[in-house]
Amino acid sequence: MSLLLLCGCASTKQPTSVYICTGLKGDAFHRTPQCKGLSDCDGELGEITIPDAMEIGLHPCKICFPKDSIIKFEKAYPGVMN
Description:
This protein is of the alpha+beta class. The chain has three helices and four strands. It has a four-stranded mixed β-sheet. Mean pLDDT is 79; it is low at 1-12.
């Protein structure tokens, strides 16, 4: 069983809100606040919508949004990953 299945990150359903690190190292948004991609966050965790995260220049976490999920994400939010 992979870590993605244990944390529930492998879900293909797009979340309505995502989690971000407000510190200087925060450049991605995450499905869950427990994502290992947030383990080195040098700020506080915040919860925002996907459009708001994209508006401030964040991209989907490669751990929380695996490749098949990224394809669905790109269809839902065209042009974001360019």
